[in-house]
Amino acid sequence: MAGLAWEIATVAALNDETPHIRTLSLNVAGWSGHRPGQHVDIRLTAEDGYQAQRSYSVASAPGGDGRIELTVERVAGGEVSPFLHDELIVGDRFEVRGPIGGYFVWDGGSPDPLLLVAGGSGVVPLMAIVRHRAAIGSAAPCTLLFSSRTPADIIYASELESLAARGDGLRVVHTLTREQPEGWAGYSRRIDAQMLEDVLGLTGKSASVFVCGPTPLVELAATSLVSLGLPPSRVRTERFGPSGG
Amino acid sequence: MDEHTLDANAVAGTLHEVFGVELTGQESECAHCGNHAQVGTFRVYDMHGPGVVLRCSTCAQIVIRLVRRPDGSYLVDASGVYLKAT
């Protein structure tokens, strides 16, 4: 019986990805290693004993030797994420348990094409897949369809650009829903059925699909992809709900 | 399906805590409609209530109910699903 124990995480580094998104690098005592797509629960305890718990996807690839990265969106009015953004400093400690989840995961063993669909910070667990794919030299072609509001909101923008430039079968398709740079030739609307049909044309219908983002986006993507002929069992989803930030 | 619906992955930690194993990657059969799917496909409701309700993604019937008791333990009703014992 595999238990799920709370361990102590120590903040090793903090990096702002965008104005609202921050990556926490954590050293976790007793970390057993994770699979791309898994998440952790974190628990903060106030001096008066009050506890708040949240789930965050692991952004880093496996093999960090006890070091994991979580990328966290600051939810205005939230209880936990503003603390992680505004108060947390290197050396702070809090509790984590994990890795958690065995459904929304990709281990890299399959050569089938991958279609990853992300809305905003929904890209985080998919980034673990993209990083793992690059690290192990997987031959699985991979297309990431990534919706962001503005160019400044694109999480991991430069890393994605350089990974795609390796020419190893990773393609990143951006859509910018609110503001586009001058001369933008890409998509400039929310992810819709037509866009999904376009990217499915790049990967083919044998693709394994991972969709992560706000619930309406995930609903639309999953429904559209199944209508386009993908078996439901190949469309894995992770919905972001109003989890209180 | 509304915007308060999440996937079972959102409560994977709680399920692991209650059942003692990672459950979301396990195969299951819905006792109502017979759908075969991994537990991770279940829909989750009532994230902020005293309990958690999981429903089949195909027929939307309740498959698992968890109620958190004041001492931190859980009452479990998993009569809506067949789970493969490992």
Explained architecture:
The complex is a heterodimer of chains A (245) and B (86). With 245 residues, chain A is an alpha/beta fold. Helix content of chain A is 21%, strand content 33%. In chain A, strand 3 and strand 4 form a beta hairpin. In chain A, helix 4 crosses helix 5. The model of chain A has no long low-confidence stretch (mean pLDDT 94). The mean pLDDT of chain B is 89. Chain B contains 1 helix and 8 strands. In chain B, strands 1-4-5-6-7 form a 5-stranded antiparallel β-sheet, with no helix packed on it. In chain B, strands 3-2-8 form a 3-stranded antiparallel β-sheet, with no helix packed on it. Chain B has 86 residues and is mainly beta. Helix content of chain B is 9%, strand content 36%.
Can you count the helices of chain A? 5
Per DSSP, what share of the residues of chain B sits in E-state strands of 2 or more residues?
Answer: 35-45%
Oligomer: heterodimer
Largest sheet of chain B: 5 strands, antiparallel
- The count of strands of chain B amounts to 8
Order of strands side by side in the largest beta sheet of chain B?
1-4-5-6-7
